[in-house]
Amino acid sequence: MSNLTLDEFIKRVKDRASEVLLQTWNCAYSPLTALYEYLGLELTDETLGAAIGFAGGISGNGYICGGLWAAVHAVGAYARKRQKQEGRIVEAGGGMSFIEANNEIHELASRIYREFVALWGSPNCRDLNPGFNLTSPDQQRKCRAIVRKSTEIAVRVLAEKYGAGALLGESNRKG
Hints:
Number of strands: 0
Shape: globular
Largest sheet: none
Order of helices and strands: HHHHHHHHHH
Helix content: over 70%
Oligomer: single chain
Structural class: mainly alpha
C-alpha cells in the first residue's frame, strides 16, 4: 500500500466498510471496523460490542446515525492516540480543564457532525431511514451510501488535520 494516494486509501476504507455492512447490516459496526483497521487502531471485542448498539440510531430508536457515531468515535480514538504519542495527553485535573485539554477532539467531532448534517440533512436515523426498513432495497442503498460517506468524512477530516502521509503510514503498518 506504500504508493496509495489519499483518494485510493479512502476508497479502500469505504470498500471495507461496505463489505462489513453487507455481512452485518450494522451501520455503526461496519465503518468503525474499517476505520480502526486502516487507521492502525486496536480493535477490541469491547469496542466492537459498544458499536453494535449504535446501529439504527441506538438500537433502532432513530437517534444519532450509527455511521456518524462511528466516524466521530474513530476520529476521537485516532486523535487521542496521536496525543499520547506526542506526549500531549492531559488528564482531568492536570493543570488545565479536561475540556481545554481535549479541544482538538471536540473540534474534529464537531466538523464531522457539521459535514454529515450538511450532506444528509439530519444526524438522526429516523430522518435518514423513516420506518427503519432495512429490507427495502432503496433504504439499503441509502444506508450503504451513508456508511461510505461517513467513513470518507472521517478520513478526510483526519488527513486535513494530521496530513495524508500520517494516515497512509498507519495503513502501511497494517500490512
